[in-house]
Design a protein that fits this description.
There is one protein chain. The protein has two helices and three strands. The longest helix has 14 residues. With 79 residues, it is an alpha+beta fold. The protein has a three-stranded antiparallel sheet.
Length: 79
Amino acid sequence: MSITFTLRPAETVTIDEVEVLAVRDLFLEKKIVARVKGLPSPVVLWDGEEEYTAAGNWTNETVLSKATEILNSGNVRFL
């Protein structure tokens, strides 16, 4: 038997421009996340050993580029 609950109704957000407010490098989790203006939760940019290593010494430009790429892909993972 399964029971389904709706904890929060769907919420749609539209952003005109990707503006990164903050970046967190979660070294122990091998994850880098960014706070994007207009979004309620941080967006996962790089996750796991391979992606984390590939990110290397990220810069503001690489973070903005990656955030834009992920948001445009429609495959967004939130923290």
